[in-house]
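Hello,

I think I submitted the molybdenum atom job twice by accident. Can you confirm which output corresponds to this input? Input:
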Amino acid sequence: MATRTVHGTCHHDCPDSCGWSVTVDDSAGAAPVAVKLRGNPDHPYSAGELCPKVNRFLDRVYSPDRVLHPLRRIGPKGSGQFEEITWDDALAEIATRLHAVIDEHGAQAVLPFSDAGNQSLLAMMGLSGRFFGHMGATKLDRNICGPTVGAGMRMTNGTGRGMDALELEHSQLILLWGTNTRLTNRHLWPTIETARSRGARLVVVDPIRTITAEAIDPDRGDRFIQPLPGTDIAMMLAMMHVIIRDGLTDDAWIGEHTEGYDELRGAVADWTPTRAAVVTDVDADVIEQLAIDYATVRPAGIRTLIGAEHHENGAMFFRTLACLPALTGAWAERGGGIAKSVGSYADDLVDVVDVVRPDLEVAGGRSPARTLNMSRLGRILTTPHAGEPAGAGISAFVVWNCNPLVIVPNAELIRAGFERDDLFTVVHEQFLTDTAQYADIVLPATTQIESDDVVLPWGHLWVGWNAAAIAPPGEACSNTELFRRLAAAMGYTEPSLFDDDATLLRDALPGVDLDELRRVGWIRAPYPADGRPFGDGRFDTPSGRVEFASDQLERMGQPRVPTFVAPREGPAGDPDLAARYPLQLLTPKHHTRFLNSGYSQLPKHGPAEGGPFVELVADDAAARGLADGALARVWNDRASVALPVRITDRLRPGVAAIPFGWWRHQHPDGKVANSLTNDTLTEWGGGVAYSDTLVEIEAL
Ligand SMILES: Nc1nc2c(c(=O)[nH]1)N[C@H]1C(S)=C(S)[C@@H](COP(=O)(O)OP(=O)(O)OC[C@H]3O[C@@H](n4cnc5c(=O)[nH]c(N)nc54)[C@H](O)[C@@H]3O)O[C@H]1N2
Ligand SMILES: Nc1nc2c(c(=O)[nH]1)N[C@H]1C(S)=C(S)[C@@H](COP(=O)(O)OP(=O)(O)OC[C@H]3O[C@@H](n4cnc5c(=O)[nH]c(N)nc54)[C@H](O)[C@@H]3O)O[C@H]1N2
Ligand code: SF4
Ligand SMILES: [Mo]
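Support: Only one job matched these inputs. Its output is below.
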């Protein structure tokens, strides 16, 4: 066997962006075949390890269920009945239908829909923006994962930037706050263990006793704190109350680098730990001790990712969290501060304008495009032309890099939209996902080992090269190739709609030596050499200081100072609703073999994880006559979902959980976790409140 090794980078929406090596068999005569895919031991972050999702990536590439040819729907929408057609026929039909929609309703009746199913630079930001910008289509606010974290932090620090998480190695207290590191960010765990071996203590704050919380060791002074979902802000306010009351602030740092300290002090004066205990249901002495530890065990590093943004007060969570290190002067110390996504450091290397070319909207000569929020998809697709939100009226829907029926909240409303006869739907996919099953035309997409690309990570600083290892199987094409073909089919002639991948990469990464990147496999995004993102004490707010009080927020109609507001869909926010639906429902990432919605369909992934279930504690189950394993109905005003019961001690009383990522055929009644979830937007930042969902459960 004549083999060679090709190096690449994982494209999944995962903080780890691991480096991998593909062994390709080039035996004469046959098309090259990938025979092995393993972690690249030289990769500076992932160091040779992948994960239970991607260890079997070649099962995905060579799955018999892959979509390899264009398909046209021949049965009712959602029936999954398709016939194979040629690319030419598919493109001709798409162009005819899109032109008809544009002629009748205007280009704004076309909604492009995508997320980070492949978060590589070309696959996620390549020609799609140019193509739909040129058309004048509605723009999509891709706010489902991450932007709310940044929008919250920016109100305090003027930037979403924070520490590189690898700096936690230097911390003596590590707070994992609303992140499930061992599941969702597993390659960071060795850094946490290194810090622990140097004496660091660990605190995990999560409404679920996750596998990360299981790692705490109370004998070493570690702690697991389990607040009611959506209430952490009250705990942070009480921490600040204690820190100020006990004189544990760094007054010199506050004096030099912050604004609004007196207002903050006023705002937290009433937030005693006893008051916060009522809101969070965490003992007052636990909150008190957390505050004292946070201010005195130094350096104190907070690690957070995405989980906590999925509440109505998600932006305020991060705005408030960002006040803590400023109060204690933690940013001055290496290993002190907050580590979140570091994607914006890699952005320094990227000229996104050149990738997306917003000027082409003007070149297209069409009316200015409007923007609609992806979390509102159900409402958008069920709204007539000129209705709310913002005159939705969508007649054509083009999806790539995303599986909205499984991942967007309020999914039954989306299904109702998908069933519309007058909606023309195109889905570019690797598999016949729940979403693809509703398409009029399905187009075959490549996997990561089938095209060159560059991965801009958000969990570490190593920008990765991805080399194609094999040719696309069947008639699959990459996302950029899709948009070149669509542009030609539409009759567009603007030359930059047809830029090839090499040109796109060169223009997008003006400061990067691409030959060097290709040769080495990675380059590190610029980051302060002393490890301290705000070591100089300068911040990007209007005042140049940390803003404990914010004029910007006031102008946006939000409280100037950190404030706890209970989510409206919650026990405190709407007691009447909570009387009907007394359980708070979380729908988190749960399975080691799943990555969002992308793996449950594979035979070594879904079946190995068992199946979906609803978890609750024994008392809540007993009160409803629910036995472990029995089928139950979980419902609210949005939907009713049948699931087997799993009695657990990982949750608190009053909280239930359903793992997200399973498809409809894996659920007993074809409804999924997101059929139940809330599509209310966050107070600011455009995120969505999946985790402010109330339900009731009864035996079936
Ligand atoms: N209830 C609940 N819902 C959630 C979440 C939650 O915690 N709970 N998490 C939310 C979060 S944080 C996120 S990021 C989203 C993720 O939701 P999605 O973005 O939908 O994520 P994936 O399931 O990873 O990927 C979607 C699809 O992209 C396809 N794909 C992969 N590579 C390519 C490619 O190169 N080209 C094309 N055309 N397609 C490709 C895959 O086959 C897959 O079906 O889910 C959100 N939804
Ligand atoms: N195995 C696996 N890994 C993944 C993914 C996957 O699907 N599977 N998805 C990837 C993606 S797209 C992303 S964005 C990242 C996300 O990475 P994380 O942000 O770490 O993951 P989540 O599960 O979304 O949320 C983390 C935790 O937030 C908790 N949480 C919810 N509400 C609250 C609250 O009010 N307060 C506090 N303190 N905690 C709360 C949840 O219980 C959960 O345990 O993971 C990535 N990695
Ligand atoms: S999914 Fe995440 S952990 Fe797994 S290989 Fe990809 S980047 Fe690494
Ligand atoms: Mo995400």
